């Protein structure tokens, strides 16, 4: 538990150093650069086994693989890695810089029934081994229909089409791309497991050697002679092996079989420099699709902006001008003939139903929206490299904790505005601090019991629960209460008109207003759904997502569309004398979450067809529900605040005797 807290402190320190060094200009790749001399030992690491079919990660050593001579040692992991179910361990795979060799690793004992069943299950569920060398994940290339497809990791085994037998991958042909480094004028700053470091001139002179810029593998299944292999020791040299093409030369998974593991490594010099080594993983394909998404969003924005322009400059301005030019007697006569938003002047600021819940949801929405914007801005400027595993999630959690002050301030100030006094602000602040985290806690706990039952590394350890609860109550809750206190001290928002004692009757409508509110969510969803496909693919199909520049633009467009949709819907309701606009303004933009969740189900059915078993589907829907709730709160808060400003501005222009 101490190592987890230490990793979390390192993450906070990382952000502080970034803030202090931002003015100097530096390259931030996300990991400290290592150089190796010829013959120097380099050990690969292994991450959790993953599958796009089950989405249940398992430990590498849950299968009968070769273990390191010094025993299994876990690497220090940050908060994000632990929450994502990553478990990085050391491995026996040893490379010697610039030494090409074929090496024997080990031979297992005779496979028992449980090991055979587990290997067959992992093979048929398409589990991948995720190996890491110098912080680079291993990459393999597969040819499908004449197209080279790039993957990270390699399969546990192979099952031929219409085949009844399974074969284990037990021979790996590695290719390590290296670049000779002799020092340069670039200042490099980054993080690794040891924390933070800046390469100085003295270090740069010492750093001459070879840097690893690529890590590729060709996996094979090879049937070795177990009797001959048992005579060898780990790291003994063997003759180079060619990957067989015939199935009878593959290593079958069967009881009482011994499996021998071997590998060979080839070092190849490359012109790729260390700062560019992640480019191969982050190749942005489908840029035209991203641009289409942005242009599509712009069209929606201009359409809505035109409606808002008409409302403000033609309707509202014209009505106000005519109304203010009339004398009092004519105004009194005109009031009897008026229809529309001017008739609800005495009810428009009447306290809504469930006002406490509205304040709580708006406060949490402001906190989530602030976290999303700041995180994506940092990521767009390159401060959250994929080389720093888990840093994106860790950064989001840190920002969420510290933005509790904005949630408390927004929720309590709205509460004070509605009630006219600060009475009850403490309970509102506590509700803001516990509402969204409480929902997430309940959902994650339910999913965690499922993961515990499956013995998955994706299960959150009990110790991490205590860490998260400590962070919640020691950082987020106090800051939320502080924000609430500041909200009570802020200048109160004064209503521009008085509220009548008797509420005005709302005219009957042919169709329920909630249908219009739910339909309004399609417009914000239209700006989001293309980018949502890439985000879901990166989460569930193991693809790297690093087009945060596009995502930042889409996020800004989404904010604008949510604000415009909510304003237009609020005005439409006021025009039909419906003064209960508060919740409708919130859900006019917040209803986009419903379409996001429905799209997630569509993605599960049509794009994750390989996802197998009810456990995987429940996990997927649980995480999708958390995402949808967060989107509802953030977009709803944006729409509500803009509508509140619009209504306040609109009625502050009306003269009341």
TrEMBL record:
Mostly located where? membrane
Q: GO cellular component annotations, sorted alphabetically?
A: endosome membrane; Golgi membrane
Q: For this entry, list what GO says about its biological process.
A: protein localization to membrane
Keywords annotated in UniProt: Endosome, Golgi apparatus, Membrane, Signal, Transmembrane, Transmembrane helix
Q: Which residues cross the membrane?
A: 291-313, 357-384, 390-415, 427-452, 464-486, 514-540, 546-569, 581-606, 618-651
Record's subcellular location: Endosome membrane; Golgi apparatus membrane
Query: How is this protein situated with respect to the membrane?
Result: Multi-pass membrane protein
Q: What superkingdom does the record give?
A: Eukaryota
Which PROSITE patterns does the record match to this protein?
PROKAR_LIPOPROTEIN (PS51257)
Database matches in InterPro entries? EMP70
The Swiss-Prot or TrEMBL record describes its family as follows: Belongs to the nonaspanin (TM9SF) (TC 9.A.2) family.
Q: What is this protein called?
A: Transmembrane 9 superfamily member
């Amino acid at each position: 538990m101490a190592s987890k807290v230490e990793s979390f402190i390192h993450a906070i320190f990382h952000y502080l150093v970034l803030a202090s060094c931002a003015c100097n200009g530096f390259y931030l790749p996300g990991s400290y650069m290592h150089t190796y001399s010829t013959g120097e030992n380099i050990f690969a690491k292994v991450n959790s086994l993953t599958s796009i079919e089950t989405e249940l990660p398992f430990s590498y050593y849950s299968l009968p693989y070769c273990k390191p001579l010094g025993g299994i040692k876990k690497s220090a992991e940050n908060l994000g890695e632990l929450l994502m179910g990553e478990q990085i361990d050391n491995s026996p795979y040893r490379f010697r810089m610039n030494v090409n060799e074929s090496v024997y690793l080990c031979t297992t004992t005779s496979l028992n029934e449980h090991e055979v069943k587990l290997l067959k299950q992992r093979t048929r569920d398409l589990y991948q081994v995720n190996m890491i060398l110098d912080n680079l994940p291993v990459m393999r290339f597969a040819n499908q229909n004449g197209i080279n497809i790039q993957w990270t990791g390699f399969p546990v085994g192979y099952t031929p089409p219409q085949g009844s037998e399974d074969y284990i991958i037990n021979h790996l042909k590695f290719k390590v791309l290296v670049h000779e480094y002799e020092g340069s004028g670039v200042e490099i700053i980054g993080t690794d497991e040891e924390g933070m470091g800046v390469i100085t001139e003295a270090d740069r002179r010492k750093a001459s050697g070879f840097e690893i810029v690529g890590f590729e593998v060709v996996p094979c299944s090879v049937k070795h002679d177990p009797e001959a292999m048992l005579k060898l020791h780990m790291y003994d040299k063997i003759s180079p092996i060619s990957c067989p093409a015939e199935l009878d030369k593959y290593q079958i998974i069967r009881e009482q079989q011994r499996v021998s593991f071997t590998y060979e490594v080839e070092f190849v010099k490359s012109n790729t420099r260390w700062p560019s080594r992640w480019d191969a993983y982050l190749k942005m394909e489908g840029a035209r699709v991203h641009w289409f998404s942005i242009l599509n969003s712009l069209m929606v924005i201009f359409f809505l902006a035109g409606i808002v322009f008409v409302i403000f400059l033609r309707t509202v301005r014209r009505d106000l001008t005519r109304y203010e030019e009339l004398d009092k007697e004519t105004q009194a006569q005109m009031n009897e003939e008026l229809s529309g938003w001017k008739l609800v002047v005495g009810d428009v600021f009447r306290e809504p139903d469930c006002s406490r819940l509205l304040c709580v949801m708006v406060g949490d929405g402001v906190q989530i929206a602030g976290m999303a914007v700041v995180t994506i801005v940092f990521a767009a400027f390159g401060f959250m490299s994929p080389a720093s595993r888990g840093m994106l999630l860790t950064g989001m959690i840190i920002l969420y904790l510290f933005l509790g002050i904005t949630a408390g301030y927004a929720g309590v100030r709205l509460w004070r505005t509605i009630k006219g006094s600060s009475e009850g602000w403490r309970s509102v602040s506590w509700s803001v601090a516990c509402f969204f985290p409480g929902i997430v806690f309940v959902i994650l706990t339910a999913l965690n019991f499922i993961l515990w039952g499956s013995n998955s590394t994706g299960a959150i350890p009990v110790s991490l629960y205590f860490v998260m609860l400590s962070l919640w109550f020691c950082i987020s809750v106090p800051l939320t209460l502080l924000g609430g206190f500041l909200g009570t001290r802020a200048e109160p928002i004064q209503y521009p008109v008085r509220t009548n004692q008797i509420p005005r009757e709302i005219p009957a409508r042919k169709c329920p207003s909630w249908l219009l509110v739910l339909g309004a969510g399609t417009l914000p969803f239209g700006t989001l759904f293309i980018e949502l496909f890439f985000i879901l693919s990166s989460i569930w199909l193991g693809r790297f997502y690093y087009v945060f520049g596009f995502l930042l633009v889409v996020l800004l467009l989404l904010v604008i569309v949510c604000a415009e949709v909510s304003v237009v819907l609020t005005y439409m309701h006021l025009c039909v004398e419906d003064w209960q606009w508060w919740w409708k303004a919130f859900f006019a933009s917040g209803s986009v979450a419903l379409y996001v969740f429905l799209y997630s189900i569509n993605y599960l059915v049509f794009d994750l067809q390989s996802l197998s078993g009810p456990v995987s589907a429940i996990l997927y829907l649980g995480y999708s529900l958390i995402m949808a709730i967060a989107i509802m709160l953030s977009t709803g808060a944006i729409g509500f605040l803009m509508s509140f400003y619009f209504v306040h501005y609109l009625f502050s222009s009306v003269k009341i005797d």
